[in-house]
Each structure stands twice: as structure tokens, then as C-alpha cells.
Design a protein that fits this description.
It contains four helices and no strands. The chain is mainly alpha-helical. The longest helix is centred in the N-terminal third of the chain and has 16 residues, at about 5-20.
Length: about 100
Amino acid sequence: MLSDDAAVKMAIQLVAHALCVKVDSIDLGMKIHDIPPWDSLGQLRIALTLEEALHLEITDPRIFSSLSSISGIADYLVSYSSRNKDSSLTAFSSSPT
């Protein structure tokens, strides 16, 4: 299972990748509209990036809504890893330049 710290790191890397921003410009307290690229379109990019990384489709609007903050994304990753113990969550180990 993914640790909370690892999930936060992965959530930050995922958002940075989806929004084409540097990892160090994002922190745990951030949410939608905190940085210019994280608008409604950026939110869709984040959801699509997460879907691609986990090979799934997010169809539940409650889940989509919960992905509007770094902490919400990290919580989702922890939950996903506990339900999918055989899954490897290493898609975002490098930061964008």
C-alpha cells in the first residue's frame, strides 16, 4: 500500500506533469484555481493524466470532485493502492523541466 507521504509526492508530480509546471511550484495545500494553469480545463487534464497512469476511467462525479486538491488526489491514490495491491504506482517519478 502507498504511504501518505508517497501519495502526496505522487499527487504533486502528477499535477505538475498534467499542468506542465515545475514540481517545486506545488505544495500539499494547493487546490484548483491556486495557480493559473489549474482552472477547469487544467482539472480535466489532471483527471485524464490520473486515468492514463492508473489505466482506469473516472466516471463517478464525486470522485472527480474529490480530485480538486493535492490532498484529495493523494487520498485517492492511497485508496486506489489499498484496493489494487498488485498495482505499481510509479508513473510520476520524474519532474518536468
